[in-house]
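> example.struct
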């Protein structure tokens, strides 16, 4: 534990002190992923433009459906919960084991860089790429809020909270993907475990919790225990932050009374989400330091 704490402290020191080897790794990961986004985004914009302006069967229904989805906070947050963890895991699951299979990791380690620098540098590169994608994705909504002039201060707060918590949620699943990549020996195995993690946290966990509550006909589960079970899942933490964070959103989502009854503190929720980033990343560093290549 002491070595893990020391490695974590040293990583942040080198990050903020401008360590050149670490920033080379960050820049390389960032630039490669940014090129992929720059290729995909124009294509997506063209497709979206054509879908919005061309005449074809079902066009009105599709536009009405997308408009309805954008106007319902719970649906937007639900889509984020389903898509963002999957994207993050697909970015990260082969970050280490994939390069090990291709032989590029051994080549990278011939340079004067520590193993933990490789992990932290690649993680920060992927995390910044995810942030760039979120800025592009949510930026349209921000522009609409800005130019329509229909947003008050609370709307802007909810918008910024959604962006920041989305980045933390994605970073948590990137860290989980890195942990998987450090634990397994084959890229195919890492992909399978990543999909299993997505199913567990996004789908099965809440279904299991719902089944447990329905089976508890005698109400033996205390509200505090249910709250702890909710806070054990990063996707549920994300939902709670965004559905109960502001009064307007909680009223629209029907979560106002539930939020007040549970009494979740925003600082605690943010700290737990940060913990879901730091703990898997720290375990990845510890495992990669001992891994035989």
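> example.seq
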């Amino acid at each position: 534990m002491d070595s893990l704490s020391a490695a974590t402290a040293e990583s942040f020191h080198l990050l903020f002190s401008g360590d050149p080897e670490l920033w080379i790794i960050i820049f390389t990961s960032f630039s490669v992923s940014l090129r992929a986004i720059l290729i995909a985004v124009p294509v997506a914009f063209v497709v979206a433009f054509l879908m919005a302006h061309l005449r074809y069967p079902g066009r009105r229904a599709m536009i009405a459906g997308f408009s309805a989805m954008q106007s319902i906070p719970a649906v937007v947050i639900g889509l984020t919960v389903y898509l963002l963890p999957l994207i993050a895991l697909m970015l990260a699951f082969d970050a280490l084991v994939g390069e090990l299979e291709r032989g590029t990791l051994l080549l990278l380690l011939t340079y004067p860089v520590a193993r933990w620098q490789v992990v932290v540098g690649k993680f920060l590169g992927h995390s910044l790429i995810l942030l760039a994608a979120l800025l592009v994705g949510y930026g349209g909504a921000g522009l609409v809020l800005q130019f329509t002039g229909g947003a008050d201060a609370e709307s802007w707060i909810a918008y910024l909270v959604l962006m920041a918590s989305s980045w933390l949620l994605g970073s948590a699943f990137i860290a989980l993907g890195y942990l998987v990549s450090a634990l397994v020996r084959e890229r195919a195995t890492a992909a399978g475990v990543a999909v299993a993690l997505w199913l567990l946290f996004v789908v099965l966990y809440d279904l299991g919790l719902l089944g447990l509550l329905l089976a508890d006909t005698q109400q033996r589960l205390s509200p505090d225990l249910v709250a702890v079970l909710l806070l054990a899942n990063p996707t549920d933490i994300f939902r709670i932050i965004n559905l109960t964070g502001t009064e307007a959103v909680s009223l629209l989502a029907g979560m106002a009374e539930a939020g007040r009854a549970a009494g979740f503190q925003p600082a605690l929720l943010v700290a737990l989400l940060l913990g879901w980033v730091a703990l898997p990343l720290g375990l990845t560093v510890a495992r990669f330091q001992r891994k035989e290549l």
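> remarks
Residues 179 and 283 are 7 Å apart (CA to CA).
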